[in-house]
Amino acid sequence: MSDYSKIYFLGIGGIGMSAIARYYKRKGYPVAGYDRTPSELTSELEKEGIHVHYTDDYDYIPKDVASTLVVYTPAIPEDLGELVYAREHGYTLVKRSRMLGELSSGQTCLAVAGTHGKTTTSTLVAHIMTEAGPGCSAFLGGISKNYGTNLLVSQNRAFVAEADEFDRSFLQLHPEVAVITAMDPDHLDIYGTVEEYRKAFKAFASQVTRYLIIKKGLDITPEDTKARIMTYSLDDPAADYHAVGAKPDELGHYIFDLVYPEGTVKNIRCGVPGWVNVENSVAAAAVCLTQGLNPEAIKAAIGTFAGVKRRLDVHVASPSLTYIDDYAHHPRELSSAISSIKAMYPGKRLTAVFQPHLYTRTRDFAEDFAKALSAVDKLILLDIYPAREEPVPGVTSKIIFDDVTAPEKVMLKKEDLVEYIKKEPVEVLATFGAGDIDRLVGPITETLEERLDK
User: Fold this and answer.
1) Parallel/antiparallel/unpaired status of strands 313-317 and 322-326
2) Over the stretch 316-335, which tens digit does the pLDDT of each residue have?
3) Which three-class secondary structure state does DSSP give residue 368?
4) pLDDT of 137-187, one tens digit each?
5) Which fold, 105-304?
6) What pLDDT score was predicted for residue 75?
7) Which CATH entry fits the domain spanning 6-96: 3.40.50.720, 3.90.1150.10, 3.40.630.30, 3.40.190.10?
8) DSSP states along 137-180
9) Given 33, 86, 216, 342, which residue has the most CB atoms within 10 angstroms?
10) Local confidence band at 3 (pLDDT 50, 70, 90 cut-offs)
């Protein structure tokens, strides 16, 4: 990095990109960048002194080619004018994943990979290391509610990273300790086949040097890695790390005992609700135990974990009305989130709003999405959020909708959702999706709070 005096980001509003932009801003570099649309995150970057613009205009790129590094995310289109300009004019271009790999080099990298669960688990690892250990630097895939950011910076060599399989990004990391939470197929637009997707996880496993902590049952064997394989589970007693006796309290926060190879930690209370967070806590505790942290200090830190924005994120909580927002955008994530919410609020009617993310993911998993969404009492299904993709002929939300067997279901335009909810009787409402449905969380919250005030 010493060769460059300015860093310019294409797709700076992305969760992973923004963490790296924040890091270099804190290091004193002039940082600026482009994103397609303003968001809460880009607004925060601007408050931190990072210039962000929203028109595809190469005039914003610093003109001193030799001293400007351009960082980009593969989520931006190849024909973006600024990207084309940077390529044609000899700028050094680096993918976000390579930047993360370089930042982690020489550190004690603790990485969390997996189709789902990785954001909450990696954020919890970072929280435990900060609260119960010597601290850590962390580049997270979500906004920690404890710290209000996706970046932690520490003098300690521990480096916590969310290891993202999109575009094979995680192969830039060489962790000392890693978790693999799940290997359910995703990103088949990138990988082509389920086999190729799973091969990438095996390649990631081969790069782990000390401990590889995998969800029990995953197809990772000693032939795949030089690291020592340990297993974790929600409740399988055969796993090296597992929970015993997990039960929710009256607020949906689970209390459990953690069994680990050297003993048991009694009465851990998850700081965030939902059974899925017991599983995340077991995985995060396993990582921190390999770092020699005190088990009772780990227990206390799990109890003070406030969670991650958009992960079972409770916005309205009253005896008569609850509203939760969640990032779930894969069928298994949806199933876990819906199951967790139903267990938190037994006997209550669950209305779910889902915005599918990507045409290819909708096409590849339509049947599985329909099955997951059939578990709710009422489904409100929105149009597909395309992100980086062009439409795929014949692929709309309707291919999910037609197979949903929930007692009630309706398809809506996103712009009609808030007005619809104003008239809708709601006990427990959940919004799901990785697109721009998050822009509606504020208006929905206001609408429901007004109802409580009446």
Assistant:
1) antiparallel
2) 998 899 999 999 999 999 99
3) helix
4) 999 999 999 999 999 999 999 999 999 998 899 999 999 999 999 998 887
5) UDP-N-acetylmuramoyl-L-alanine:D-glutamate ligase (3.40.1190)
6) 84
7) 3.40.50.720
8) EEEEEEEETTTTEEEE--SSSEEEEEE--GGGGGGG---SEEEE
9) 33
10) confident
Alpha-carbon gap, residue 89 to 100, rounded angstroms: 25
Residues 62, 51 contacting (CB under 8 angstroms): no
CA distances in angstroms from 41 to 15, 17, 52, listed in the order given: 8, 11, 11
Q: What is the pLDDT of residue 369?
A: 98
Position 2 scores a pLDDT of 63
Structure-token pair, residue 144: 């920690």
The residues of the chain that CATH labels 3.40.1190.10 are 105-304
Residue 188: its pLDDT value, please? 80
In the CATH scheme, what is the homologous superfamily, with its name and number, of domain 313-453? Mur ligase, C-terminal domain (3.90.190.20)
Task: List the beta bridge partners of residue 303.
Answer: none
Q: How far apart are CA 337 and CA 320, in angstroms?
A: 21
Across 353-370, average pLDDT:
96
At residue 1, does pLDDT exceed 80? no
Calpha distance 159→370 (Å, rounded)? 39
CA distance linking residue 26 with residue 45, whole number of Å = 12
254-260 and 263-269 strand pairing: antiparallel
Tokens 């932009």 sit on residue: 21
| 177's tokens | 């300790």
pLDDT score for 184: 86
The boundaries of every CATH 3.40.50.720 domain in the chain are: 6-96
313 has pLDDT over 70: yes
Which letter does DSSP use for residue 383 in this model? P
Question: Is the pLDDT confidence value at 58 over 70?
Answer: yes
| pTM for the model | 0.89
Residue pair 141/151 in contact (Cβ under 8 Å)? The answer is no
Please give the DSSP secondary-structure letter assigned to residue 32: E
